[in-house]
Design goal:
By secondary structure, the chain is an all-beta fold. It has no helices and eleven strands. The strands form two sheets. Strands 2, 4, 5, 6, 9, 10 and 11 form a seven-stranded mixed beta sheet that branches. The chain has a four-stranded antiparallel beta sheet with strand order 1-3-8-7, with no helix packed on it. A hairpin with a 6-residue loop joins strand 4 and strand 5. The protein is globular.
Amino acid sequence: QVQLVESGGGSVQPGGSLRLSCVVSGISLDYYAIGWFRQAPGKGREGVSCTNSDDGSTYYDDSVKGRFSASKDLGKKTVYLQMNDLKPEDAANYFCAAAGSGYRCYGRPTEGAYDYWGQGTQVTVSS
């Protein structure tokens, strides 16, 4: 069974950094695109990034471009989201997700393309 488990969320001051982790089992990171999404209270789910499995190309939402960086460790079956220069508007529950077999993203991630989701990890940004 496919399972994604996020961790690494927490509370940080504006300008601080966090590194989120997502352990993936049941599918190979060599063949499945991985996306990061976030959802703040009262708002819809927002795409943050997507990374293709074939060439590692990554696309980011304009709101995080230049501040966030996605990566993966195939040996540990783990994907990461490094978040730098965090802003209050970045506060949300963050989810990692795996797309359907053979899917390749181009541009910012779209929720409908992803079949498997983690449980989320909370990020709070406040002074």
